[in-house]
Structure formats: structure tokens, C-alpha cells
Specification:
The protein has 247 residues and is mostly helical. It has one domain. It is built from 10 helices and 4 strands; from the N terminus they run βαβααααααββααα. The protein has a two-stranded antiparallel sheet. Strands 3-4 form a two-stranded antiparallel ribbon. α4 packs antiparallel against α9, α5 packs across α10 and α6 packs across α10. It is globular and about 55 Å long. Bound molecules: iron/sulfur cluster (2 copies). The site of one iron/sulfur cluster has 11 residues, from loops.
Length: 247
């Protein structure tokens, strides 16, 4: 899920711009999904695209300030997740399309997903409480890859997220899964999510949840996205001798 940075330009309130400058930058990330959404809109209606971006930046500012009220850690992740769940639920209710996503459907758990530090802390706590074992070799194969590397540099059988139960197709950390997974809803047939068959599924894009995700990343990820891949985050946080590792 590659991201680019947008220049907030004049849409950012001056006080917020000053604050961001102090903390090292004014860049606003936009996911590949959001970029595609804006590009489509720009082609059809540039004025609407401009309004969309302005709203995105406003919401980004609002969510950044809201998340910032809590220290980095599991509580902030829970706030992020509860906000995201409400937005995703509303978007799926308002959409004329019915999402195809169902329990056990997991082609999407074979693409590169990331998590910010607060989410990683929450997930590692959950793994310990529920004694969920992890394959270290799987994590090592996926570590240090971005989304392009995830698809091209490792065989399909090594691409499943280390948190996936491959037999049932269910997420083993579902209640605490990252926002990247929470917001990923597809309205085309599930088989279109299998990148061995098709290279693009139709994603339901929620501007607000995209702005929220971008705010969490801007707040916590002043580094390259490869370092925030799920496998990289797990390797970084769980010591080599921890009994959670199976191999
Ligand atoms: S995104 Fe695609 S693969 Fe994932 S649950 Fe939804 S339909 Fe299934
Ligand atoms: S965290 Fe769960 S939902 Fe997200 S990619 Fe991994 S297995 Fe799938």
C-alpha cells in the first residue's frame, strides 16, 4: 500500500502548519488507493477533485490533532481503530455497492500491509495474551519489502501475512488488526482480489478513513514504509528468543 506525500499548501491552518514544521515536516501522506481516487476524479471533474483534496486535508488535520491527544501506544491504536470502524461502517451502508468481504476470504492478506507503532504494540500485546505463535522465517522473508517487493520478490506461497491462519483464511488478531486491513473493503467479486488472476479489485474508498490513516502515519511514521510492514514490525518488536516464534 504505497503512499505519496501531498503538499498541504494553503489548505492547512497556519497554527497546524507551524506545529508540523516543528515536528519535522508538513507532508501529508496519501495511500495508493487515495491517489487513484483523486486521479480518477481529476480526469472527470477537476473542480470536484480539488474540493475532495481540500476536505481530505481538513480531515487529516482534525484527526492528527485528535490522535495526538494520546501518547503513542495501545490506547492510541484503539482510538484509531474505533474511529476507523465507524467510518468504514458508514461508508459501506451508504455505498450502493455491497462489499464482497467475508470471514475466511483472504486474498487481501497476501499483499503488503503496514501498521504504525501504536498498532504494533497493541498487536504484540494481543499475541502474548492469546499465545499466538508466529513463523519467524515467514517474517524474515517478508521483512524489508515494500508492496512492489512483496509481489515480485517472494513466491506467492510466502506472501501470506504472518498473522493469518492460512487453513481457515481468518485473521488471528482480528479484534486488533491494523487500520490498513480495517479500511480495505472490496466491492468487486472476491476472486478479483487474487492477484494471480486479476491485477485490480474495485475498492470502496472512504475519504475520511483515508485521512485518518494518513494522520496516524504522519504522526508515527517519519521513515520509510518498508519499515512498517507487518513482518518488519513483528521482527523488530519480538526478541529472537521469545517463545512466540515457532521456527
Ligand atoms: S478484500 Fe477481497 S480478498 Fe479480502 S476479504 Fe474482501 S473480497 Fe475477500
Ligand atoms: S493483520 Fe489480519 S487482516 Fe491484516 S493482513 Fe494480516 S491476517 Fe490479514
Amino acid at each position: 500500500m504505497t503512499s505519496r506525500t501531498l503538499d498541504g499548501g494553503n489548505s492547512l491552518p497556519e497554527s497546524f502548519r507551524r506545529k508540523l514544521k516543528k515536528s519535522g515536516g508538513v507532508s501529508i501522506p496519501a495511500s495508493a488507493t487515495m491517489q487513484g481516487y483523486v486521479a480518477d476524479m481529476e480526469a472527470k471533474n477537476p473542480h470536484m477533485a480539488n474540493l475532495l483534496l481540500q476536505r481530505y486535508v481538513q480531515e487529516f488535520t482534525l484527526f492528527y490533532e485528535k490522535l495526538e491527544t494520546l501518547k503513542k501506544g495501545p490506547r492510541r491504536a484503539r482510538l484509531l481503530h474505533s474511529l476507523a470502524d465507524k467510518m468504514v461502517e458508514r461508508a459501506s451502508k451508504e455505498s450502493p455497492y455491497v462489499p464482497s468481504c467475508k470471514k475466511g476470504c483472504s486474498f487481501c492478506c497476501r499483499i503488503h500491509a503496514t501498521m504504525v507503532d501504536s498498532e504494533a504494540e497493541l498487536i504484540v500485546d494481543y499475541l502474548h495474551v492469546h499465545d499466538i505463535k508466529l513463523s519467524r522465517s515467514r517474517c524474515e522473508k517478508q521483512s524489508g519489502l515494500d508492496d512492489a517487493g512483496h509481489v515480485t520478490k517472494i513466491p506467492y506461497e510466502d506472501r501470506a501475512c504472518p498473522l493469518l491462519d492460512e487453513a481457515s483464511g481468518e485473521c488471528r488478531v482480528y479484534p486488533v488488526r491494523p487500520v490498513q486491513c480495517r479500511k480495505y473493503l472490496v466491492v468487486s467479486p472476491a476472486k478479483d482480489c487474487d492477484i494471480r488472476v486479476k491485477d485490480k479489485a474495485a475498492i470502496l474508498v472512504g475519504r475520511d478513513v483515508e485521512a485518518l490513516t494518513a494522520a496516524s502515519m504522519a504522526l508515527e511514521t517519519p521513515r520509510k514504509l518498508v519499515d512498517d510492514g507487518i513482518a518488519s514490525q513483528l521482527l523488530k518488536r519480538i526478541p529472537k528468543n521469545d517463545p512466540l516464534w515457532t521456527e
